Structure prediction request, 540 residues.
Amino acid sequence: MSQATIEKGINAFKEQIDAPVAAFFSSCVSCGMCAEACLFYTETGDPKYTPIHKLEPLRRVWEQEYTLTGKIKKLFGLTEAVTDRMLSEWQELLYDSCTMCARCSMVCPVGNDIAYMVRKAREGMVASGNAPEGVRMASTRAVRIGSPMGVKLTSLQAQIRHIEADTGLTIPIDVEGAEYMALLSSMEIMNFPEYIGGLAKIFAHAGISWTLCSTAFEATNSGIQIGSSDIARELVQRVVDGAERLKVRAVISPECGHAYTAIRWEGPNLVGRRFTFKVIHILELLDQLRASGRIRTEGLERECMTFHDPCSLVRKGGVIESPRNLMNMVTENFVELEEHGKWGWCCGGGGGVSSNEEAAGLRHKAFRRKKEQLEASGADALVTACANCRLVMEEGFEGYRVEMPILGLTELVADHLVTEEGSGEPPEKR
Amino acid sequence: MPIEVNGKTLETDEEGYLVNLSDWEPAVAEIMAKEDDLELNSEHWDIITFLREYYEEYQIAPAVRVLTKAVGKKLGKEKGNSKYLYALFPYGPGKQACRFAGLPKPTGCI
Prediction:
């Protein structure tokens, strides 16, 4: 990337101000309802964390450049310019205290998509050199190495050797003409390889042809998180190139929230054309296989279990019913959190927050919301479908001394597959 | 800041991690530990050795939770928990232990 300057930052803000952004700013009635929707406000009580306030630099540029009153104010020196100092102060507001969970967008009475604007404002922060170091380094690694954590193909191959030994199944790589190409998040590869084992078991059971891709196994997109369309585009393009090289019918987005937003919803816009393959989230696929009878499970978890909705997958991605159908397939005592589905509360670590060391203290405070919600549910175990949420919640539990196991939904389904072979008769329906 | 180990000057980055991973030898860990007012015992060495092997296999420095889980798998639950690991490496089992083991700074997901 070229040298970041305040001028480039202001220009990026200007470029990002499109018709929706202009309409949103001119519609805001300053009601403050977005504050109550934001866990960084509710858990600290500090008004600076009011979502719309986090957008003040972008709003100011909009007013000064694109409105008559703003232009007049600027002419007479009645409005302050957006400076580097201001942006460095706003770094905490646009990164540390925002997971782009979009709960604020849901409550806004005039329909302002605040999370959409935060995503755009971050472009100006990157261009002016005001993105946090942790997120910046993750983006650099994603571009250079192919993974925000620095996971190389050799790291994946080492992990695959263990999974194959544990499961007795083959993890296919670069199989041309496979029906599905599965993507993985770095955290799944290094810390939750049971997800990969789960995929292998489920696909063997359902008779599905699948493959990983040696040149595009990483699903996460640091460009989306940091706010750099250039990086985001490059990372999506790798997946597109990999999927087209292997001529797969569909790409499976893994149990990672923002990866799905990146590849499914922002992907084609970023690369500027339709994909030649479909994109499906693993939970959507499993739910389809459930409905069509291609996966058959047995036994139900007896413990009381609840589901944490990853924001990017559920509220932003629209995958709301699939996790619930799957939970009901394998548990007998599934309880919903009080606010769930599209109204779920974030774990506090999305949108790049978990990779931002400076945000650790604030993230811990914000997690109290989730913790209290979980305790009130009476659940014995927590299930989710995002490696990042899972890790953030494990850390949160440790900090608040909560003892509650956290499971991945795909693994849970894999653990309940009917195992007998060749009987020819379908097992009794449960 | 460079460190002196057995008469050799080894380059480190601004956070004290070795710049050239191949410079590592056991004395590096001893000297880095001394600077942190720690005396390494066999329990520290179990983790340092584990990290060296982990890096050899996966070519990645494990972040704290990845390390905790991997240690639990290999060395048992009583060692694979953060209480035990933080007691050994008070500055963070991910960062401090990786530094002693000559690995790069561990990184998390995004």
